Amino acid sequence: MGSSGLTAMVLAAGVGSRLDPLTRQFPKPMVPFGNRPVMEHLVNLVKRHGFTRTVSNVHYLPDKVTRYFGDGAALGIEMHFVHERELTGDAGGVRACRSFLQDGTFIVVMGDLITDLDLTYVVKQHKDKGALATVALKQVIDVERFGVAVLDRDGRIQGFQEKPAREEALSNLVSAGVYVFEPEIFQYLPEAGPVGFGRNIFPMLVQKGLPIFGVEVWGYWSDIGTISQYRTSTADALNGMIDLEILGEQIPQGWLGEKSTISEQTQITGPILVGRNSRISDSVRINGYAVIGDNCIIEPGAELQDAIIWSGSVIGANSMIRNSVIGADCLLPAGSQILDTAVIEPSDSTSADRISLLA
Asked: What secondary structure, in 3-state letters, does 258-299 show?
């Protein structure tokens, strides 16, 4: 699709503290989204746009990332990893991966995005304008949550406003967490220490009058930085709002993984996604949406509503899970009530070890 031979960097070092307690089990890029890690969706996206190689910085629970992806052969793309001993910001992470990025134009994608943006279009705009750096920009309503970019008529970035009041905002375009760079960008990164693109590098490029452009993009875009946003984006995916590959056989109610069974007495009203080798028992009721991972058991009489259940978990008979996320390998006893909560409770723990937080 026009970007052949380019390298994509997927940032994968973040801890994801706002997703706690879920990120006690997985680093943020490995959080399951539609039963696959968020980062796998991003790797598939860059591959779809002709990128043949990725590099990622890892830091928190690094083995969970590197073991899952290996060299990328299973996904049909070449993958590399650089272990950062200390977090140094997004620009610091790119600096750590410099040896993979200095051969030509490259793209950087934040590792907690769920998006189907047209990366080919962003790279083409970058090249057509002769940019050193290009920031993909998305229109938002709630500008006060973001830093907005101010552009001139040609799309060149003139400056930034950090979280402006709505009435004072000079723009409603915010960074979508996707950047394109020429390798000359490394000349402008300090050799050591923490450094961020939004905080340090982009304002400095503007100040120096260097060619930094903004490109407005369309399509679905969401970061899953909070549990509520994670749940909202999951519902969007099951409702077909994202161009995303979902694993499983299509059934009238959604998707069903291989060797999984749903009792004929199960009542399902919303879209569901069931992973592999899972069992949904008699008299289970599923309202709203539900994502059930691999190797899960939903015991008789349980009720799920707007629920995300990670792999290896057992939901006891007559339990109710509503507006909640259940982590991996949880064993919830019969009659459990989990409402508006995120829970991780590995099956070998005692009930006193349960950790739950309001979403």
From this structure: CCCEECCCCEECCCEEECCCCEECCCCEEEEEEEECCCCEEC
